[in-house]
Specification:
36% of the residues lie in helices and 26% in strands. The radius of gyration is 18 Å and the shape is globular. The protein has a single domain, classed as P-loop containing nucleotide triphosphate hydrolases (Rossmann fold, 3-Layer(aba) Sandwich). A hairpin with a 2-residue loop joins β9 and β10. Strands 6-7-8-3-9-10 form a six-stranded mixed β-sheet, with helices on both faces. A four-stranded antiparallel β-sheet has the order 2-1-4-5, covered by helices on one side. It has 250 residues and is an alpha/beta fold.
């Protein structure tokens, strides 16, 4: 069974239905890109995959989302364990008001890791994996907000990796970055997909074509089409998908 299975997922904000009966299986070890016009439900879908939708006042969710066979929408779901399994990157880097080192070590420290040598090695490994270690080696205990925006986004990724997640959710993670920083983050995603299930929301069709292994296309809250990227981009089955890809809608 795929790591993430969504069945009959619907989301309501008051009288507005933001997602309509979405069912899909998200493949492991690939980058699944979520496409669609603004307001079509992409971010809402992403927020259901880690229960951040719970923080939206008035939101009502029905259906099921299975992660490793467990329905994370169940009332008795272990949200702390879920947060450890599912990391998230947002549009704007959300660095903690602490040092670079502490940002990376924070999650592992909360999980109970107290050994200084082990924490040091974890921080080093995670910063190395996001190709940030050489850039910050001499200022690990400087405030994280002193980093550039692109460096902050890679730091947030290192922080997510430090708790050993299974899934990475990315909500337009390069939209606030300059082209060079965005390229670095894209390269990281290509490296990381071998170890993680990555679900990426983007407004950039060019980025989607560069990164996607699998595509979900949403329109007006409906999952219109999904499938391997090559098939969706070259021979979309649905007229609405074709219209979006050619710029008729979007």
């Amino acid at each position: 069974m795929p790591r993430i299975v969504v069945r009959n997922l619907s989301v309501y904000y008051g009288s507005h239905q933001a997602l309509r009966d979405v069912s899909v299986e998200i493949p492991d070890g690939q980058i699944t890109v979520v496409l669609g016009p603004s307001g079509c439900g992409k971010t809402t879908f992403l927020r259901c995959l880690n229960r951040l939708i719970d923080l939206t006042e008035g939101a009502k969710v029905t259906g099921e989302v299975f992660l490793d066979g467990e329905n994370i929408l169940a009332k008795d779901a272990d949200l702390l364990r879920l947060r450890q399994k599912v990391g998230m990157l947002t549009q704007k880097p959300q660095v903690f008001p602490m040092s670079i080192y502490e940002n990376v070590a924070f999650g592992a420290w909360l999980k109970g890791l107290r050994d200084k040598k082990a924490l040091d090695e974890l921080v080093r490994q995670c910063l190395q994996r996001v190709h940030l270690l050489e850039e910050v080696r001499d200022r690990l205990f400087a405030p994280a907000f002193q980093l550039s925006v692109g460096q902050q986004q890679r730091l947030c990724l290192a922080r997510a990796l430090a708790v050993e997640p299974e899934v990475l959710l990315c909500d337009e993670p390069t939209s606030a970055l300059d082209p060079l920083s965005a390229q670095k983050v894209e390269e990281l995603f290509r490296e990381l997909k071998e170890r993680y299930t990555i679900v990426l929301v983007t407004h950039s069709l060019r980025q989607a074509k560069r990164l996607a292994d699998y595509v979900l296309f949403f329109y007006m809250g409906e999952l219109v089409e999904h499938g391997p990227a090559q098939q969706v981009f070259s021979e979309p089955r649905e007229e609405r998908t074709r219209a979006f890809l050619t710029g008729v809608i979007g």
